[in-house]
Amino acid sequence: MNANAHGPYALDEQLAADTHPLAALDLCDLRLMDDANYPWLVLVPRVAGARELLDLDAAQRHRLTDEIDLAGRALREVFHPFKLNVAALGNLVPQLHVHVIARFQDDPAWPAPVWGRVAARPYSPDALVGRIRLLEAALRA
Known about the structure:
The chain is an alpha+beta fold and 141 residues long. It is 31% helix and 21% strand.
């Protein structure tokens, strides 16, 4: 894909509103979904105009896979989930982004997908800082 055909990379406004920055990885912005119901990370490749995995070149797809692995391992190390959900839907936000969600058998949506089950529960300022610190430490490990 010719990234210049779509102008410079910019984070979708809805993703910016729904998430908090966590880390700038080699390819992706790693963000924390503002929903304390679930430990939930979102990876957004910094590739202008990318809507589908097919819009990434082979090296970018491999890098994205490695960064999904990094996010999943951080969630697993910190939260010890029963299951990790990984999804790239993009029906409401077409910009390519990948959700990595730690799931538990007692979470509010179990065993269904998280979307549309319960209202998002935004982090309090203190809880947000604590969650980010935990995840930053796990990403460095």
